[in-house]
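Notes on consecutive records. When two proteins share a document, each keeps its own sequence and its own C-alpha coordinate line. Never mix them. Below: protein one.
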Amino acid sequence: MISILANWLLSAIAIVVTAEFVPGFQVDSFSTALIVALGLGVVNAIIKPVLLLLTLPINILTLGLFTFVINAVLILLVAQVVSGFTVVGFVPALIAGVILWAINHLVNFVLFPVKAV
Protein backbone atom coordinates (compact mmCIF):
# COMPACT_ATOMS: atom_id res chain seq x y z
CA MET A 1 0.00 0.00 0.00
CA ILE A 2 2.81 2.39 0.85
CA SER A 3 4.56 1.66 -2.44
CA ILE A 4 1.39 2.49 -4.39
CA LEU A 5 1.03 5.83 -2.62
CA ALA A 6 4.73 6.57 -3.08
CA ASN A 7 4.52 5.74 -6.77
CA TRP A 8 1.45 8.00 -7.13
CA LEU A 9 3.21 10.88 -5.38
CA LEU A 10 6.40 10.44 -7.41
CA SER A 11 4.36 10.31 -10.62
CA ALA A 12 2.74 13.61 -9.69
CA ILE A 13 6.17 15.12 -9.04
CA ALA A 14 7.32 13.81 -12.43
CA ILE A 15 4.32 15.49 -14.06
CA VAL A 16 5.16 18.82 -12.42
CA VAL A 17 8.81 18.52 -13.47
CA THR A 18 7.80 17.64 -17.02
CA ALA A 19 5.49 20.66 -17.15
CA GLU A 20 8.46 22.89 -16.33
CA PHE A 21 10.49 21.67 -19.31
CA VAL A 22 7.96 20.93 -22.07
CA PRO A 23 6.28 23.96 -23.66
CA GLY A 24 2.59 23.31 -24.26
CA PHE A 25 2.35 20.89 -21.31
CA GLN A 26 0.93 22.77 -18.32
CA VAL A 27 -0.29 21.80 -14.87
CA ASP A 28 -1.88 24.48 -12.69
CA SER A 29 -1.01 23.08 -9.26
CA PHE A 30 0.38 20.07 -7.45
CA SER A 31 -3.11 18.92 -6.54
CA THR A 32 -3.97 18.94 -10.24
CA ALA A 33 -0.81 16.89 -10.86
CA LEU A 34 -2.03 14.36 -8.29
CA ILE A 35 -5.36 14.09 -10.13
CA VAL A 36 -3.54 13.78 -13.47
CA ALA A 37 -1.30 11.03 -12.06
CA LEU A 38 -4.36 9.18 -10.80
CA GLY A 39 -6.13 9.65 -14.13
CA LEU A 40 -3.12 8.42 -16.10
CA GLY A 41 -2.85 5.42 -13.79
CA VAL A 42 -6.48 4.48 -14.32
CA VAL A 43 -6.30 5.05 -18.09
CA ASN A 44 -3.05 3.05 -18.31
CA ALA A 45 -4.63 0.19 -16.37
CA ILE A 46 -7.93 0.03 -18.30
CA ILE A 47 -7.65 1.55 -21.78
CA LYS A 48 -3.96 1.07 -22.64
CA PRO A 49 -4.02 -2.77 -22.73
CA VAL A 50 -6.95 -2.69 -25.15
CA LEU A 51 -5.19 -0.16 -27.38
CA LEU A 52 -1.97 -2.17 -27.29
CA LEU A 53 -3.85 -5.28 -28.37
CA LEU A 54 -5.65 -3.45 -31.19
CA THR A 55 -2.43 -1.88 -32.47
CA LEU A 56 -0.25 -4.95 -32.06
CA PRO A 57 0.68 -5.29 -35.75
CA ILE A 58 1.91 -1.70 -36.09
CA ASN A 59 3.60 -1.97 -32.70
CA ILE A 60 5.52 -5.01 -33.90
CA LEU A 61 6.48 -3.25 -37.14
CA THR A 62 7.82 -0.24 -35.23
CA LEU A 63 9.58 -2.42 -32.66
CA GLY A 64 7.43 -1.03 -29.86
CA LEU A 65 7.91 2.66 -30.62
CA PHE A 66 4.21 3.06 -31.43
CA THR A 67 3.62 2.64 -27.69
CA PHE A 68 4.86 6.22 -27.27
CA VAL A 69 2.14 7.36 -29.66
CA ILE A 70 -0.44 5.49 -27.59
CA ASN A 71 0.94 7.15 -24.44
CA ALA A 72 0.62 10.57 -26.09
CA VAL A 73 -2.99 9.87 -27.05
CA LEU A 74 -3.77 8.79 -23.49
CA ILE A 75 -2.16 11.96 -22.12
CA LEU A 76 -4.34 14.01 -24.48
CA LEU A 77 -7.39 12.05 -23.28
CA VAL A 78 -6.62 12.81 -19.63
CA ALA A 79 -6.02 16.47 -20.54
CA GLN A 80 -9.55 16.62 -21.94
CA VAL A 81 -11.03 15.30 -18.69
CA VAL A 82 -8.97 17.04 -15.98
CA SER A 83 -9.42 20.79 -15.63
CA GLY A 84 -6.21 22.65 -14.90
CA PHE A 85 -4.19 20.26 -17.07
CA THR A 86 -3.49 21.56 -20.55
CA VAL A 87 -1.65 19.92 -23.42
CA VAL A 88 -1.45 21.98 -26.60
CA GLY A 89 -1.05 19.54 -29.46
CA PHE A 90 0.26 16.08 -30.13
CA VAL A 91 4.00 16.86 -30.12
CA PRO A 92 4.08 18.21 -26.53
CA ALA A 93 2.08 15.15 -25.45
CA LEU A 94 4.57 12.86 -27.21
CA ILE A 95 7.60 14.60 -25.69
CA ALA A 96 5.97 14.62 -22.25
CA GLY A 97 5.12 10.94 -22.59
CA VAL A 98 8.74 10.06 -23.32
CA ILE A 99 9.99 12.21 -20.43
CA LEU A 100 7.41 10.78 -18.01
CA TRP A 101 8.32 7.25 -19.09
CA ALA A 102 12.02 7.92 -18.51
CA ILE A 103 11.47 9.56 -15.10
CA ASN A 104 9.12 6.82 -13.91
CA HIS A 105 11.48 4.06 -15.00
CA LEU A 106 14.42 5.76 -13.31
CA VAL A 107 12.48 6.29 -10.08
CA ASN A 108 11.17 2.71 -10.08
CA PHE A 109 14.67 1.37 -10.75
CA VAL A 110 16.20 3.37 -7.89
CA LEU A 111 13.45 3.21 -5.27
CA PHE A 112 11.74 -0.08 -6.06
CA PRO A 113 14.48 -2.44 -7.33
CA VAL A 114 13.58 -5.94 -8.42
CA LYS A 115 14.56 -8.40 -5.73
CA ALA A 116 16.17 -11.66 -6.80
CA VAL A 117 14.32 -14.69 -5.57
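Protein two starts on the next line and is unrelated to protein one.
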Amino acid sequence: MKTLIIYTSQTGFTKRYAQWLADRVGGDLLDLKDALLHNALTDAQREYIKVFYCQGGMSYEKMNAPTRITMKMFVSAVRNKKDATEEQKEMFERMASSYDISDIKYIEPIAAYLAGMDEEKAV
Protein backbone atom coordinates (compact mmCIF):
# COMPACT_ATOMS: atom_id res chain seq x y z
CA MET A 1 0.00 0.00 0.00
CA LYS A 2 1.37 3.41 -0.95
CA THR A 3 1.95 5.85 1.90
CA LEU A 4 -0.60 8.62 2.11
CA ILE A 5 0.57 11.79 3.86
CA ILE A 6 -2.39 13.75 5.22
CA TYR A 7 -1.63 17.17 6.62
CA THR A 8 -3.24 20.35 7.79
CA SER A 9 -1.39 23.63 7.67
CA GLN A 10 -2.46 27.14 8.55
CA THR A 11 0.77 28.93 7.71
CA GLY A 12 2.48 26.56 5.25
CA PHE A 13 5.22 25.04 7.39
CA THR A 14 3.45 21.71 7.93
CA LYS A 15 2.54 21.54 4.25
CA ARG A 16 6.24 21.98 3.42
CA TYR A 17 7.20 19.10 5.73
CA ALA A 18 4.39 16.94 4.35
CA GLN A 19 5.57 17.55 0.79
CA TRP A 20 9.17 16.74 1.70
CA LEU A 21 8.01 13.55 3.41
CA ALA A 22 5.79 12.49 0.49
CA ASP A 23 8.69 13.08 -1.91
CA ARG A 24 11.11 11.16 0.36
CA VAL A 25 8.91 8.07 0.77
CA GLY A 26 7.23 8.18 -2.64
CA GLY A 27 3.86 8.81 -1.06
CA ASP A 28 0.77 10.75 -1.98
CA LEU A 29 -0.12 14.06 -0.36
CA LEU A 30 -3.62 15.03 0.76
CA ASP A 31 -4.90 18.05 2.67
CA LEU A 32 -6.94 16.96 5.72
CA LYS A 33 -9.85 19.20 4.68
CA ASP A 34 -10.02 17.42 1.30
CA ALA A 35 -9.76 14.01 2.96
CA LEU A 36 -12.67 14.81 5.28
CA LEU A 37 -14.73 16.52 2.59
CA HIS A 38 -14.51 13.57 0.21
CA ASN A 39 -14.33 10.81 2.85
CA ALA A 40 -11.13 9.85 1.05
CA LEU A 41 -9.83 7.20 3.45
CA THR A 42 -10.60 3.52 3.11
CA ASP A 43 -11.06 1.39 6.23
CA ALA A 44 -7.65 -0.20 5.59
CA GLN A 45 -5.97 3.21 5.47
CA ARG A 46 -7.63 4.27 8.71
CA GLU A 47 -5.96 1.37 10.51
CA TYR A 48 -2.51 2.73 9.73
CA ILE A 49 -2.86 6.41 10.51
CA LYS A 50 0.11 7.79 12.42
CA VAL A 51 0.40 11.39 13.52
CA PHE A 52 3.65 13.33 13.41
CA TYR A 53 4.34 16.92 14.32
CA CYS A 54 7.13 19.04 12.91
CA GLN A 55 7.58 22.64 14.01
CA GLY A 56 8.90 24.68 11.13
CA GLY A 57 8.39 28.19 12.33
CA MET A 58 5.76 30.81 12.77
CA SER A 59 4.26 33.22 10.28
CA TYR A 60 2.13 35.94 11.79
CA GLU A 61 1.36 37.15 8.27
CA LYS A 62 -0.34 33.86 7.36
CA MET A 63 -2.21 33.33 10.64
CA ASN A 64 -5.89 34.09 10.89
CA ALA A 65 -6.73 37.08 13.07
CA PRO A 66 -7.88 35.21 16.23
CA THR A 67 -4.73 33.05 16.25
CA ARG A 68 -2.46 36.05 15.65
CA ILE A 69 -4.10 38.01 18.47
CA THR A 70 -3.90 35.03 20.84
CA MET A 71 -0.21 34.51 20.07
CA LYS A 72 0.59 38.18 20.61
CA MET A 73 -1.27 38.15 23.95
CA PHE A 74 0.56 34.98 25.01
CA VAL A 75 3.97 36.42 24.10
CA SER A 76 3.17 39.63 25.95
CA ALA A 77 2.17 37.70 29.06
CA VAL A 78 5.17 35.37 29.12
CA ARG A 79 7.69 38.14 28.42
CA ASN A 80 6.82 39.50 31.85
CA LYS A 81 7.55 36.21 33.62
CA LYS A 82 9.90 37.17 36.46
CA ASP A 83 11.65 33.83 36.95
CA ALA A 84 12.10 32.92 33.27
CA THR A 85 15.26 31.03 32.35
CA GLU A 86 17.52 32.29 29.57
CA GLU A 87 16.17 29.48 27.34
CA GLN A 88 12.61 30.59 28.00
CA LYS A 89 13.48 34.24 27.33
CA GLU A 90 15.03 33.25 24.01
CA MET A 91 11.91 31.24 23.13
CA PHE A 92 9.63 34.17 24.03
CA GLU A 93 11.65 36.54 21.84
CA ARG A 94 11.55 34.10 18.92
CA MET A 95 7.77 33.76 19.30
CA ALA A 96 7.35 37.53 19.17
CA SER A 97 7.86 37.62 15.41
CA SER A 98 7.72 35.40 12.35
CA TYR A 99 10.54 32.92 11.84
CA ASP A 100 11.41 29.89 9.69
CA ILE A 101 13.51 27.06 11.08
CA SER A 102 12.19 24.34 8.79
CA ASP A 103 14.79 21.89 7.53
CA ILE A 104 14.34 18.74 5.47
CA LYS A 105 16.65 16.83 7.85
CA TYR A 106 13.84 16.80 10.44
CA ILE A 107 11.75 14.41 8.35
CA GLU A 108 14.43 11.69 8.34
CA PRO A 109 13.28 9.96 11.56
CA ILE A 110 9.70 9.93 10.25
CA ALA A 111 10.81 8.63 6.84
CA ALA A 112 12.83 5.89 8.56
CA TYR A 113 9.84 4.95 10.69
CA LEU A 114 7.58 4.74 7.64
CA ALA A 115 10.19 2.67 5.79
CA GLY A 116 10.25 0.27 8.76
CA MET A 117 6.46 -0.03 8.63
CA ASP A 118 6.66 -0.88 4.91
CA GLU A 119 9.24 -3.58 5.66
CA GLU A 120 7.00 -5.09 8.37
CA LYS A 121 4.04 -5.23 5.96
CA ALA A 122 6.16 -6.99 3.34
CA VAL A 123 7.12 -9.82 5.74
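For the record: Helices lie at 13-25, 32-37, 43-47, 65-79, 86-95, 108-122.
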